[in-house]
Amino acid sequence: MAIESSSTQAIPEVGDTPRHVAIIMDGNGRWAKRRFLPRIAGHKQGLEAVRNVVRACIDCGVQCLTLFAFSSENWRRPKDEVKFLMQLFMYALEEEVSRLHQNGIRLRIIGDRSPFDPKLVRLMVEAEEKTKLNQILTVNIAANYGGRWDILQALNRLSHEQPDKAGRYEESDLAPYLSLHDTPEPDLFIRTGGEKRVSNFLLWQLAYTELYFTDTLWPDFDSPALNAAFESYRQRERRFGRTSEQLQLETPRRDVAGA
Ligand code: IPE
Ligand code: IPE
Ligand code: MG
């Protein structure tokens, strides 16, 4: 992450539309339960919501969307559910990547890939390779991702490559090793499904992100629901440590996402 895009090192540009949106897609199981369906039916419907939200982000001029698909703690779920989620992930990569590519979407997968089936890893690499030059929207899928894992893997690589500086590392030393090092920090975090927690998502990157929680279950989250989150975002005063009075002396906010 460049110094100028670190919210603690410099004051980021703020527009009416978030440049980077990060979402915890929660509530699939409850969506299914309410319909007397198995939990996996909720996950299937969740994929449909992903399609809708990706489309809506393009329409709004969002530059980057990061979706939490599987946490490092989700391995604790029943074996059959984990297996289904892996199959769904594989299916999505096989079936969706061409369409994403045609729409100018760059796909990236963040997280620890080491426990995944080699076939799934191959599909991830191929999808990233195929879409790497696309510029309309970057979609990051967090799979076997944990915020603590991210910070630790960065620290381990940094200390390996720069052992002489141990004990004197600064934010700018660590930042380039983090998963989303080349992406502006999320402006807006959304969690669907009613829980008000971060569940080990982007711990480092959420330092100054605006948080939005909604009871809407992920499979029901659509374009109007996304717009409601954006409307809430527009009402926020992003001070980054400064006072309200200081902000009012500055130039009015403009739409950097569309710039
Ligand atoms: C989110 O929905 C999807 C994943 C974690 C993979 P859940 O499966 O957590 O749904 P709830 O929270 O049980 O309703
Ligand atoms: C967070 O949801 C992870 C994903 C959406 C992938 P969980 O349903 O796993 O979170 P907790 O367990 O309720 O905190
Ligand atoms: Mg959940």
Poorly predicted regions: none
- Which fold does the CATH topology refer to? Undecaprenyl pyrophosphate synthetase
Q: Residue-averaged pLDDT, rounded?
A: 95
Determine the structural class based on helices, strands and strand pairing.
Answer: alpha/beta
Bound compounds, each kind once, are: 3-methylbut-3-enyl trihydrogen diphosphate, magnesium ion
Number of strands: 6
Number of helices: 8
Order of helices and strands: EHHEHEHEHHEEHH
User: Quaternary status of these chains?
Assistant: single chain
CATH class group: Alpha Beta
CATH architecture: 3-Layer(aba) Sandwich
Kindly give the count of domains: 1
Overall morphology: globular
Let me know the CATH homologous superfamily: Decaprenyl diphosphate synthase-like
Distance between the termini: 21 Å
Task: List the SSEs and their pairings.
Blueprint: E1 20-24, H1 28-34, H2 39-60, E2 64-71, H3 79-102, E3 105-110, H4 118-131, E4 137-145, H5 147-161, H6 171-174, E5 188-191, E6 210-213, H7 223-234, H8 244-249
Parallel strand pairs: 1-2, 1-5, 2-4, 3-4, 5-6
Helix pairs in contact: 1-2, 2-3, 3-4
Magnesium ion is lined by residues 26, 193.
In short:
The chain has 8 helices and 6 strands.
Task: Please tell me about this protein's structure.
There is one protein chain. Helix 2 (39-60) runs parallel beside helix 3 (79-102) and helix 3 (79-102) packs parallel to helix 4. The two termini are 21 Å apart. The protein has a single domain (20-160, 171-258), classed as 3-Layer(aba) Sandwich (Undecaprenyl pyrophosphate synthetase), CATH 3.40.1180. It has a six-stranded parallel β-sheet, with helices on both faces. It is α/β, with parallel strands linked by helices. The radius of gyration is 19 Å and the shape is globular. The chain has helices at 28-34, 39-60, 79-102, 118-131, 147-161, 171-174, 223-234, 244-249; strands at residues 20-24, 64-71, 105-110, 137-145, 188-191, 210-213. Helices cover 40% and strands 14% of the residues. It binds 3-methylbut-3-enyl trihydrogen diphosphate (2 copies) and magnesium ion (MG).
